[in-house]
Specification:
Arc Repressor Mutant, subunit A, Dna Ligase, domain 1, 152 residues, three-stranded mixed β-sheet, 49% helix, alpha+beta, single chain, 16% strand, three-stranded antiparallel β-sheet
């Protein structure tokens, strides 16, 4: 995410907090800042471990609550990659994308495909369906894991 987009996201978050009667705190700002600067698909625990290095006073419950607010503000989305844990990814100023997920190592590859998006629209139109949102996750084996398996 660019510095300009991070600044805009922070401004949007501040406006969301104000409009919803929520407090703007240093802890919320730190959590948002770290989340925005991390491009990975983070679990709460992953994010918490990163945050604890910067500010050991921030508790796990604060990270949970803040990520809910960040999602409600439209800056992140919660995603389930089939591993029993919720992960968070950026939503603000990020193009829609789908995911390829390796069932061996857990690697997540983001893919953007205009052809797939057109197909979703075509299917919705064919069935007179009002498409609001969608996710696509394809589970399989990544190239690194396939290569390791061949060596055995």
């Amino acid at each position: 995410m660019t510095k300009k987009n991070i600044k805009q996201a922070k401004n949007n978050f501040a406006a969301y907090l104000k409009n919803n009667g929520l407090l703007k705190t240093a802890q919320r700002d730190q959590i948002l800042d770290i989340f925005l600067k991390t491009e990975d698909h983070l679990t709460i625990e992953d994010l918490y471990l990163i945050i604890r290095k910067k500010n050991p006073k921030i508790g796990l419950a604060t990270v949970y609550r803040t990520m809910k607010v960040i999602c409600d503000a439209g800056l992140a989305r919660e995603t389930d990659f089939g591993n029993g844990q919720k992960s968070f990814e950026h939503k603000y100023r990020h193009r829609h994308h789908d995911h390829l997920i390796c069932v061996n190592c857990g690697r997540i590859i983001e893919v953007i495909s205009p052809e797939i998006e057109k197909l979703h629209q075509k299917l919705a139109k064919k069935h007179k369906f009002s498409l609001l949102r969608h996710t696509m996750q394809i589970f399989g084996t990544c190239a690194k894991c396939k290569k390791k398996k061949k060596k055995r």
